Amino acid sequence: MSFDPHRVAHRTRTLAQGFAQFLLRGRTADLAVAVVIGAAIGALINEFVKDIFTPFASALVSWHAGAASAAECNASGTFCFRGYPILYTNFVDASVSFLVIALVVYFFVIVPTNKLVSNSFLQPSPDPAMRKCPECQADIPKLAKRCMYCTQPVAPE
After folding, report:
1. What is the 3-state secondary structure (H, E, C) of the chain?
2. Domain spans of the chain?
3. Which end of the chain, N or C, is less surrounded by CB atoms within 10 Å?
4. Which sign does the torsion angle of CA 77, 78, 81, 85 carry?
5. CB 140 within 8 A of CB 130
6. Interatomic CA distance for residues 138 and 140, integer angstroms
7. Half-sphere exposure at residue 13, Cβ-oriented, CA atoms within 13 angstroms
8. Rounded to an integer, what distance in angstroms lies between the CA atom of residue 149 and that of residue 86?
9. pLDDT digit of tens for each residue in the chain (157 aa)?
10. How far apart are the C-alpha atoms of 115 and 16, rounded to whole Å?
């Protein structure tokens, strides 16, 4: 059997089209995006609760000062509220990480998926039993004598 580059190119093209249709048929890309963005939002919320909300709530509810003294807070360079260190830098890091993940997902998953969907080879073929109304351009059955949308009489095909 000899090597035919045209046949290989054709098989590769049909394989890529089939794979693209598989990815887009069941909203696989949407599910993958939801999982990735959900994990990133979960990390962001965890950092907020752990490093900002919990120390503030502890400082407001407790009657005594936090574990860190004012000298320890000033020496470490962290912001302290009633002796409880507020580690806002961890939350900023998680926010930047979320933004980077969201940008990567958008530019490397959403944009290519939208481009694939807009290509004509992935569009469903037109229904052979339908035709366009000459007046309003709506899809009507081929055997119709009048358009169901604009009520314009049409000649049957």
Report:
1. CCCCHHHHHHHHHHHHHHHHHHHHHCCHHHHHHHHHHHHHHHHHHHHHHHHHHHHHHHHHHCCCCCCCCHHHHHHHCCEEECCEEECHHHHHHHHHHHHHHHHHHHHHHHHHHHHHHHCHHHCCCCCCCEEECCCCCCEEECCCCECCCCCCECCCC
2. 5-124, 126-157
3. N
4. negative
5. yes
6. 6
7. 8
8. 64
9. 567 777 777 778 788 777 777 777 667 888 889 999 999 999 999 999 998 998 888 888 876 655 656 666 666 667 887 778 888 888 999 999 999 999 999 999 888 888 877 775 556 667 788 888 888 988 898 888 899 899 889 987 7
10. 14
Residues in the chain: 157
Q: How far, in Å, CA of 133 to CA of 130, rounded?
A: 10
